[in-house]
Structures are given as structure tokens and as C-alpha cells.
């Protein structure tokens, strides 16, 4: 029986066990949504309010479950609205399929409604090209089966990421006889293993190390390699550090855990990283944010031996020279290195060793530094105290979601998580507006877990319209809005770098006073439960009530304009006319290049 182009797309999604399509119907994708209607018993459709939200929801779903989803949009502005969300997924290696409507093949170049055609007809793929692994624009319905299995192969192989299909309206509607989907024999399933000789060299280096460090990045979470990474560290007594995307790969209450490196990280991890003699890094890109812009006082010491594991060979040696490179899936590499370690040396009795004691001492000193903010009394409270109260109320396997701003940074810095896929953050692209839709996606992907979106008021307002989706689905996701009336992370950056009084365009003001919407009332108007909590002792009980209620809720907490506890260096240039320029130059001179 002939199938339309839209039916072919949906049947391939179903064959790939894609659970959900997020998006908004329009004239450019109406045939796609009609095909979804006919298959609503096999694939769910979630209507969003804005297409950016659709991409963030698919992103959050993948991060909480490991299962990719699809995004459908119309032609033109609807497709363009996805760009921020797709770019976020691309930078943080999230798999998703974006299907955008496109002008009819026989109308291309005629400036039909919403067509981009001044450089090349039906030119929207050029908009997404920098933020997708690959883009396809088919011209005939018979091409679709080939394109669909190529799209899934590209999306899921190597480093995961978004792919794009630009689907002309006539191709969606036309029908042709095609074979059933055959993704089982068309999509790469195996994961690349590291070179055997290099693995042995890596194991010998680790076995002989005096101050070993293991760094887990996002590749460890994607590969499900947390257990093997922990066992490697336990075999040699290595300190365990995690990046933004690797947070949760290993329980943060493990006695070898050394927290997180970077300027928004911790003095614990920065000290351990800078003094390590052998470093095993798995699935991390050594970005400036996580590694203090490569400043000599916080980055790798010059004689350290770096063993770098990455599935993408372009990342090997990009930001730091390597002693051993292992181009492989983080899970396969961790398993092979662990086996080689067991062959090379007996487990090291690290408990009670000077190095183990140093890790504990550094952690205690860091906890002592954070304690005053975490135990702050009175209202408004601090972000640190609010996060401590949220952690008390959130189950150990609960999921926390954060977008750009102080809450995101402080979730990374001081909010302990204990399981993979329970810390979801707009990390490498640091997208403001991620929290509201990202948490919806995370809850849909992990319906049995508590999901709390922790947002600053600026981040929350960016995509607040998606609360309507949580209300319509009656979805049990809870948001805690930490309200300090502005873009305070940038305000503290401006004043910290440029000098007191040099903040601009970062505070929400009205008639000379701080301005803020009533977020609890706003939530109630959307159909959610809404509550404002000013006493910090009331935050945990309010969150427990909201989680127990089973429906969507917003808890607004006024917080101070307290900034982040800076732990390292981050290179943000200072204008030459400011006195702080010379201090920036001095820091810049300390960067390792």
C-alpha cells in the first residue's frame, strides 16, 4: 500500500521507538501532524507554545531517559524558532531529529509564504547547518526511506547530536510504495573500542601514578560508564572530578570525589587537577568554562601525563597535549582500561593514604567556605541556602534542571547529585530559557522520578509561556524560581571585572524600585499551583508539598543578589580604558596556550 512522505517519516520514528514528537502544526507541516494523528496510539504528540520550547523539551527528554525524540515545525519562522534549542542540543551532544516544513518543490524560488530564497531557494537548511550534524532536503518522496535511516545513523553514531530533515510540503503529501523501515540493519549499534596497545600504556601510567585524577565528562553519562569509571578510580585511589555534563556520573558522596573544576567549580577540583601527575579524562572537551581558561595556576601542571578518551578524534589534544590518546566510546574505553589495570597491578590500598586524606581535607575546607551562605538566616535568603533546602526535599534519584544564570552555576558548584541523568543543565551553550521546557521534557522522559526545575527569574521569564504545556498535560513538574529581580550573574560579572557601579541593563526596575512579576500568581493564572516562600525554613516543606501534589507547581523564593563563589579563572576581556585592564592582562599572560 502506498505511503505518503509524512507517513514514511512517522513509520520510521515508530520503528526507532521514538516516543514523542514535540512541535506546533502550521501550513508547512500539517501533513506531518495528520500522519501523527493516525498513529497517536504508537507515538505521542506534545504541542508546545514556541518552537524553541519544543527543541528544549526533546533535549530534556533525551537527557533524562537516553531516548531521542523528534521536533516538527512549519516552514519559515516556526523553523527559525528552533535554532536556539537545536544549537543547545548540538553543543551538549543531545540526539534529536528536527523535521521542518519546506516550500513545495514546484514552488521553490517563487517567494512563497515564509520562504527564504534570496541566496538560494528554500534555503532554511543553511540556517541550521552550523548546529546540526547533518541536514537533508529531499526532492521526491521515494528518497525518504534512505534519508531516514541515514538520519538515525548520523544522529546516534559517534558523538550524538541533532540532525535535520527539511521536508517540502508536496513531498509530505505525495505517496509511493516503499519497503517497511529497516533501521535494525541500517543504524550503527556497536561502540568503538580503544587501541589495545594504547590501553595498556594508559593502564601502566595510572598504576604508577602518585596523584592520579579521573575526569568524567558528558561522554561518561551518555555511555553509561559511571560504574567502570568509579572502579578505575578505586583501583588506583584516584580523585574523581566531573564536568558540567558529567555531573552525576559518580555519586558525589563517594569518598574519592573531588567535585568540579573550573572558575564556577571548586577549589578542591582545581587543586587536585593542578597537582595531578596522571590524568584520565573520559568524554570531556576541556572547555574554558570547566578548566579555568587554561590558566597555569588551575590547569594541568606541565609534566602531567594526560590520557584522553573521546569518541571524536577532533577533540584529542585540542586543548591540552596528550600522553596517550584513546579514540573510543567512553564506556568501551573505561571497561578496557579497567581490565588492563587489573592485569597490570593489584588494587592500591588508598583508604587512609596521605592523598585520600588530602581529598577529604580539601573538601572540608570548601564546605567550610560555603557554609555561611548555605546557613544564611532571614529573608531574602541566599541562592546557596535555597539550594540546600531543595536538596533536602528532593529524593536521592530526583532530577534537577537548570538554565543559564546564577542558579545554573551554583547547581554545578554546590548541589550534590548521586545518579547519572539527574543533573540536566544547558551546559556548553548555557542557554537562558532552558529550565521551563527542559524540565517538562525531563519529566516526560522519566515520569517516575521527581523533577525540579531551578530557575532564576530571568531564565524563567525567557520561556515562561511553556507553563501552559505543563498545565495542559497536568504534568508533575515543579519549578523553584529564585527571584533576585534581574540578570544577577551578569551584574556580578560586570562589577567584579569592571569595578563597582559599572553594572548596566541587568536589573529589573520600575519607577525607581526593584521590579518583579508575582510568579506565584502567574503560575496560578496558567493553571499551576503557585506559592511564595520567604522564610528559608519553609522551602523544603513547600517543595515536598508540591511534589506530593502530583501536578505542576511553581514556588517563588526571593533571594539576595549574592554572586558565585569564584574558584578559578575565566578569561573575559576588560576594556583598555578601565583600571582592571592590567589585572586582566596579567591573568591572560598566565594562560597556557
| Estimated radius of gyration | 25 Å
In angstroms, what separates the terminal alpha carbons? 61 Å
How confident overall, as mean pLDDT?
Answer: 95
CATH homolog superfamily of the largest domain: Thiamin diphosphate (ThDP)-binding fold, Pyr/PP domains
Structural class: alpha/beta
Task: Predict the CATH topology of the largest domain.
Answer: Rossmann fold
Indicate the overall shape. globular
Strand order of the largest sheet: 3-2-4-5-7-6
Task: State the total count of DSSP E strands.
Answer: 21
Beta-strand percentage range = 15-25%
The major pleated sheet works out as: 6 strands, parallel
Helix content: 25-40%
CATH architecture of the largest domain: 3-Layer(aba) Sandwich
* Overall CATH class of the largest domain: Alpha Beta
Low-confidence stretches: none
Please report the number of helical segments: 23
What is the domain tally?
Answer: 3
Could you explain how this protein is built, in words?
This protein is of the alpha/beta class. The protein folds into three domains: 3-185, Rossmann fold, CATH 3.40.50.970; 196-360, TPP-binding domain (Rossmann fold, 3-Layer(aba) Sandwich); 377-558, Rossmann fold (3-Layer(aba) Sandwich), CATH 3.40.50.970. 39% of the residues lie in helices and 16% in strands. The strands form five sheets. Strands 3-2-4-5-7-6 form a six-stranded parallel β-sheet, sandwiched between helices. The chain has a six-stranded parallel β-sheet with strand order 15-14-16-17-21-20, sandwiched between helices. Helix 2 links the parallel strand 2 (20-23) and strand 3. The protein is globular and about 70 Å long. The protein starts with a strand and ends with a helix.
Amino acid at each position: 500500500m502506498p505511503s505518503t512522505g509524512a507517513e514514511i517519516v512517522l513509520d520510521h520514528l515508530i520503528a526507532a521507538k521514538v516516543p514523542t514528537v514535540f512541535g506546533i502544526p502550521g501550513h508547512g507541516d500539517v501533513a506531518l501532524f495528520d500522519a501523527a494523528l493516525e498513529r497517536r496510539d504508537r507515538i505521542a504528540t506534545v504541542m508546545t507554545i514556541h518552537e524553541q520550547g519544543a527543541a528544549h523539551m526533546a533535549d530534556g527528554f533525551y537527557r533524562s531517559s537516553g531516548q531521542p525524540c523528534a521536533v516538527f515545525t512549519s516552514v519559515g519562522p516556526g523553523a527559525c524558532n528552533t535554532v536556539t534549542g537545536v544549537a543547545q542540543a548540538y553543543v551538549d551532544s543531545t540526539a534529536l531529529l528536527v523535521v521542518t516544513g519546506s516550500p513545495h518543490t514546484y514552488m521553490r524560488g517563487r517567494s512563497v509564504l515564509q520562504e527564504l530564497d534570496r541566496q538560494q531557494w528554500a534555503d532554511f537548511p543553511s540556517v541550521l547547518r552550523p548546529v546540526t550534524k547533518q541536514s537533508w532536503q529531499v526532492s521526491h518522496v521515494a528518497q525518504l526511506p534512505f534519508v531516514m535511516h541515514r538520519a538515525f545513523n548520523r544522529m546516534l553514531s559517534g558523538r550524538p547530536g541533532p540532525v535535520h530533515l527539511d521536508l517540502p510540503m508536496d513531498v509530505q503529501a505525495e505517496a509511493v510504495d516503499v519497503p517497511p523501515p529497516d533501521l535494525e540493519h541500517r543504524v550503527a549499534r556497536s561502540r568503538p573500542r580503544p587501541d589495545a596497545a594504547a590501553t595498556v600504556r594508559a593502564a601502566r601510567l595510572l598504576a604508577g601514578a602518585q596523584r592520579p585524577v579521573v575526569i568524567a565528562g558528558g561522554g561518561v553519562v551518555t555511555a553509561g560508564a559511571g560504574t567502570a569509571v568509579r572502579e578505575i578510580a578505586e583501583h588506583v585511589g584516584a580523585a574523581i572530578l566531573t564536568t558540567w555534563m558529567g555531573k552525576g556520573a559518580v555519586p558525589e558522596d563517594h569518598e574519592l570525589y573531588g567535585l568540579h573544576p573550573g572558575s564556577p567549580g571548586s577549589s578542591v577540583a582545581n587543586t587536585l587537577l593542578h597537582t595531578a601527575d596522571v590524568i584520565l579524562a573520559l568524554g570531556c572537551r576541556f572547555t574554558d568554562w570547566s578548566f579555568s581558561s587554561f590558566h597555569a595556576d588551575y590547569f594541568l601542571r606541565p609534566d602531567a601525563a594526560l590520557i584522553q578518551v573521546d569518541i571524536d578524534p577532533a577533540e584529542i589534544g585540542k586543548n591540552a597535549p596528550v600522553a596517550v590518546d584513546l579514540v573510543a566510546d567512553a564506556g568501551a574505553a573505561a571497561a578496557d582500561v579497567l581490565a588492563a589495570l587489573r592485569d597490570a597491578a593489584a588494587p592500591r590500598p588508598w583508604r587512609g593514604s596521605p592523598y585520600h586524606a588530602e581529598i577529604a581535607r580539601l573538601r572540608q575546607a570548601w564546605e567550610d567556605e560555603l557554609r555561611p551562605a548555605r546557613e544564611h538566616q532571614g529573608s531574602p535568603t541566599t541562592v546557596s541556602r535555597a539550594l540546600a533546602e531543595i536538596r533536602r526535599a528532593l529524593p536521592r534519584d530526583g532530577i534537577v534542571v537548570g538554565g543559564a544564570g546564577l542558579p545554573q552555576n551554583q547547581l554545578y558548584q554546590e548541589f550534590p547529585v548521586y545518579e547519572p541523568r539527574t543533573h540536566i543543565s544547558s551546559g556548553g551553550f548555557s542557554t537562558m530559557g532552558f529550565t521551563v521546557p527542559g524540565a517538562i521534557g525531563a519529566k516526560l522522559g522519566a515520569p517516575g522520578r521527581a523533577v525540579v526545575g531551578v530557575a532564576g527569574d530571568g531564565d524563567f521569564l525567557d520561556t515562561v509561556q511553556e507553563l501552559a504545556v505543563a498545565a495542559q498535560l497536568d504534568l508533575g513538574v515543579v519549578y523553584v524560581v529564585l527571584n533576585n529581580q534581574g540578570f544577577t550573574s551578569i551584574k556580578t560579572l560586570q562589577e567584579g571585572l569592571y569595578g563597582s557601579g559599572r553594572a548596566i541593563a541587568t536589573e529589573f526596575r520600575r519607577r525607581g524600585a526593584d521590579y518583579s512579576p508575582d510568579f506565584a500568581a502567574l503560575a496560578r493564572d496558567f493553571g499551576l499551583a503557585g506559592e511564595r516562600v520567604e522564610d528559608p525554613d519553609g522551602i523544603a516543606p513547600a517543595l515536598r508539598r508540591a511534589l506530593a501534589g502530583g501536578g505542576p507547581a511553581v514556588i517563588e523564593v526571593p533571594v539576595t543578589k549574592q554572586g558565585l563563589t569564584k574558584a578559578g579563572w575565566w578569561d573575559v576581556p576588560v576594556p583598555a580604558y578601565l583600571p582592571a585592564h592590567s589585572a586582566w592582562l596579567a591573568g591572560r599572560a598566565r594562560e597556557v596556550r
